Amino acid sequence: MTVVIGLTGGIASGKSTVSNMLKNLGIRVVDADQISREVVEVGKPAYQQILSVFGDEILHQDKTINREKLGAIIFGDHSKREQLNKIVHPAVRKEMLNGVEEEKAKNSKAVVLDIPLLFESKLTHMVDKTILVYVDEKTQLKRLMKRNGYTEKEAKMRIESQLPLHTKKDLSDEIIDNNGAIEQTEKQLHEILKKLI
Ligand SMILES: CC(C)(COP(=O)(O)OP(=O)(O)OC[C@H]1O[C@@H](n2cnc3c(N)ncnc32)[C@H](O)[C@@H]1O)[C@@H](O)C(=O)NCCC(=O)NCCS
Ligand SMILES: Nc1ncnc2c1ncn2[C@@H]1O[C@H](COP(=O)(O)OP(=O)(O)OP(=O)(O)O)[C@@H](O)[C@H]1O
User: Where in the cell is it found (predicted)?
Assistant: First the structure.
């Protein structure tokens, strides 16, 4: 049986860091962020829908979507964010399910769905077990500002557009505390995998 694991967290909590560890162990990770970039490429159905809602001022000169501009619009505006989610999420879900089916057909031991909005979008029905990559609020803010060069205001807007990580803690089967050193994170992941797979 293939165990379907939902990997989640908050923005900059360390999902990609953990997902790289999983890939190094030979486990397939289906990445919702990566798929959400692919489904809005020029010519894809979601691309047209985004343009009809947000206008062509959110495009680069080469007609690709300017993610910085779109991000600045949607992270500060709940209803615009909902509009974008409604366009992008169905296509992302479909691609993720394809990934799961492929791994099940191969009888793989496990497949991981890396979904930042696993709880917000009520997608837990897609997975057997959930793992949360947790950091405290101060660490999250610090790492996000450093990684993306955001101001505190820009970073907070993004963090506040998601459920707080302390709330996600209560909803998760397993928790990885990623406040410490990477080695500690890796150790916790190995312990959890021993239990789940
Ligand atoms: C607004 C966009 C263009 C900004 O792009 P950008 O390259 O700056 O960010 P990226 O896509 O790498 O996302 C970074 C992180 O932001 C958070 N995030 C992204 N979209 C959302 C959202 N709609 N609501 C809350 N948090 C979000 C996630 O934690 C994600 O890991 C992009 O995030 C997007 O298209 N979002 C809508 C699709 C979506 O919900 N993606 C997340 C998982 S499906
Ligand atoms: N244990 C750690 N110690 C120090 N820095 C870390 C640790 N874990 C992750 N980081 C750094 O924190 C930042 C965020 O981590 P990462 O990109 O893995 O988060 P993410 O949850 O995938 O983010 P996003 O949702 O935005 O894609 C990165 O710059 C990463 O190098």
Answer: Cytoplasm
pTM over 0.95: yes
From the CA of 181, the nearest ligand is 2
Distance from the alpha carbon of residue 15 to the mean position of ligand 2, in angstroms: 7
Q: What separation in Å is there between the alpha carbon of 11 and the centre of ligand 1?
A: 9
Q: Which ligand is nearest to the CA of 36?
A: 1
For 20-74, what is each residue's pLDDT tens digit? 999 999 999 999 999 999 999 999 999 999 999 999 999 999 999 999 999 999 9
The region, left, alpha or beta by phi > 0 then psi within -120 to 50, assigned to residue 164 is beta
Complex ipTM:
0.98
Q: Is 17 annotated as a binding residue?
A: yes
Burial of 179 (0-12, 13-18, 19+ CB in 10 A): middle
Q: Which pair of tokens denotes residue 97?
A: 């399910």
